[in-house]
């Protein structure tokens, strides 16, 4: 009659017994059901990110149907892609209170509703609300839980698991492009969106597969991770320990609050047991009261965690390395999106349409992007390799390709650069891993929500900004140069802050010696 402990995400058991018994590792960590989580996340990336990569098909239909300017019509796709990522911090609140499974199922329904309502659009502004906002929010409610759950279920092979799950973006770009093109040809774009809405209901199935780990399993994972954090701190100077010293909430206040909650819930349970001799109606009322009490505790705890992560004294923003990571994210994603949007026009300017029709440059990026995510994930999981160093090297390669792409005026040269862009952009699979190393699994949802929010802002304004530069200069060269230079600024922030973090303990020890 009342929600289970796993569904609520709150442990009502006796924590004192955990330390007295030997810890048995959960077989679902790094194995078992963990691979079902990877499959679920893979399908989410196909249905959400893959569909967004294929919106160019619908964009052509909207231009012909509504006879609006290209800039105004393009905002429909930009809103959908941007809002999916921008709502990340608010989705983190839902995850803290309701859990990943419930959040993803609600998001799947909302996403499908956005697609279906868009089939009845009378103008572009209607699409802003139904497809850009409604479907975009629904996509964000499914995307963030899909990433967070993979981080919760994997410890030793996190980078590989994230790499495999995010390859769904590349596969989805191919599958959804072909599917939407076929549906638009056979049934028209309105019926195509209606059918795609029905297909998007499978996101609810993906959400149902996100079975939550019990709090006991999460504690066991934390204890296993704590043994390896000293070695990881040597490779990553701003590890979880550094972040905690800069303001991550401590455990003692939470334990006191949990003890108070236990007392309240225990009294309710005692009243229920004592009232078994009463009427059935009284028992039903007590069970409802217990369920409401459990949900109230969960909501309060989730909101407190979310609020402290963003606005409290223990805010994630008190850590300089995490702030540098956010600044980097503001410039990074547009450098990947801009080539997808403007490469067809560049090919047309260079009279390379015939070669591009045989094997499109955007397809080269998508194909190599799949292998890049898997290979970079495998390399990062090697014990002698630092995930942070792999992440930085991939970023340097990508920004170099962005700056050199305008210099290539032959198809072979552009194909080589696009292949490097696709491979180096595989670092997207490492972003959740790096974020988890910074803040820990407990704060991954809130921290990664901030990161993808910054990526969403970049995706929302990056392509229109590149088009505005082209309108002024009548060349795309400056668009890539400016995007590359801004991207380089973000990378410099990532390099400077770890050096500052290293110097601070040394300066402090010097002052103590003088005293």
UniProtKB/TrEMBL annotation:
Its main location: membrane. Residues 37-502 form the Major facilitator superfamily (MFS) profile domain. One of its GO terms (molecular function) is monocarboxylic acid transmembrane transporter activity. Residues 226-263 are annotated as: Disordered. Residues 239-248 have a biased composition (Polar residues). It is a multi-pass membrane protein. It is found in: Membrane. SUPFAM superfamilies: MFS general substrate transporter. PROSITE patterns: MFS. Keywords: Membrane, Transmembrane, Transmembrane helix. The chain crosses the membrane at residues 33-55, 75-95, 102-120, 126-148, 160-180, 192-213, 321-341, 361-379, 386-405, 411-434, 446-466, 478-496. One of its GO terms (cellular component) is membrane. It comes from the Eukaryota. PANTHER family: MONOCARBOXYLATE TRANSPORTER (PTHR11360), MONOCARBOXYLATE TRANSPORTER 14 (PTHR11360:SF239). This is MOT14 protein. It comes from Origma solitaria.
């Amino acid at each position: 009659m009342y929600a289970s402990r796993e569904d609520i995400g709150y442990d009502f058991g006796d924590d004192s017994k955990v330390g007295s018994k030997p810890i048995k590792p959960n077989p679902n960590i790094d194995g078992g059901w963990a691979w079902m989580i990877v499959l679920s996340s893979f399908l989410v990336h196909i249905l959400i990110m893959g569909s967004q990569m294929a919106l160019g098909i619908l964009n052509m239909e909207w231009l012909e149907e509504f006879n609006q300017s290209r800039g105004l019509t393009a905002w429909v796709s930009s809103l959908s892609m941007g809002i999916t990522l921008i709502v990340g911090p608010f989705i983190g609140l839902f995850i803290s209170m309701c859990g990943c499974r419930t959040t993803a199922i609600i998001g799947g329904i909302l996403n499908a509703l956005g697609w279906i309502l868009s089939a009845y659009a009378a103008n572009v502004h209607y699409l802003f609300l139904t497809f850009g906002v409604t479907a975009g929010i629904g996509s964000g409610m499914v995307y963030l839980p899909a990433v967070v759950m993979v981080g919760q279920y994997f410890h030793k092979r996190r980078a590989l698991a994230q790499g495999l799950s995010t390859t769904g973006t590349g596969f989805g770009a191919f599958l959804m492009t072909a599917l939407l093109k076929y549906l638009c040809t056979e049934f028209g774009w309105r019926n195509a969106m209606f059918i795609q809405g029905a297909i998007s209901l499978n996101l609810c199935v993906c959400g149902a597969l996100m079975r939550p780990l019990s709090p006991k399993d999460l504690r066991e994972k934390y204890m296993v991770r704590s043994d390896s954090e000293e070695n990881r701190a040597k490779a990553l100077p701003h590890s979880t320990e550094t972040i905690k010293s800069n303001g991550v909430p401590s455990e003692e206040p939470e334990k006191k609050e949990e003890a108070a909650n236990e007392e309240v819930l225990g009294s309710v349970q005692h009243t229920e047991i004592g009232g078994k001799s009463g009427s059935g109606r009284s028992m039903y009322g007590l069970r409802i009261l217990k369920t409401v009490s459990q949900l109230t505790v969960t909501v309060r705890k989730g909101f407190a965690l979310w609020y402290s992560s963003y606005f409290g004294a223990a805010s994630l923003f008190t850590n300089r390395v995490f702030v540098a990571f956010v600044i980097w994210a503001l410039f990074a994603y547009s450098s990947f999106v801009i080539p997808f949007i403007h490469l067809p026009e560049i090919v047309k300017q260079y009279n390379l349409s015939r070669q591009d029709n045989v094997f499109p440059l955007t397809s080269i990026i998508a194909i190599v992007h799949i292998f890049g995510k898997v290979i970079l994930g495998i390399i990062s999981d090697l014990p002698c390799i630092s995930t942070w160093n792999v992440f930085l090297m991939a970023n340097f390669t990508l920004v170099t390709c962005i700056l050199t792409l305008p210099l290539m005026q032959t198809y072979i040269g552009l194909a080589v650069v696009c292949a490097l862009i696709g491979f180096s952009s595989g670092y997207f699979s490492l972003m959740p891993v790096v974020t988890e190393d910074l803040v820990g699994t407990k704060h991954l949802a809130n921290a990664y929500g901030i990161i993808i929010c910054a990526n969403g802002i970049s995706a929302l304004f990056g392509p229109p900004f590149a088009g505005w530069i082209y309108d002024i200069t009548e060349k795309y060269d400056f668009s890539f140069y400016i995007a590359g230079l801004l991207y380089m600024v973000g990378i410099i922030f990532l390099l400077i802050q770890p050096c500052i973090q290293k110097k601070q303990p040394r300066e402090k020890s010097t002052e103590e010696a003088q005293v």
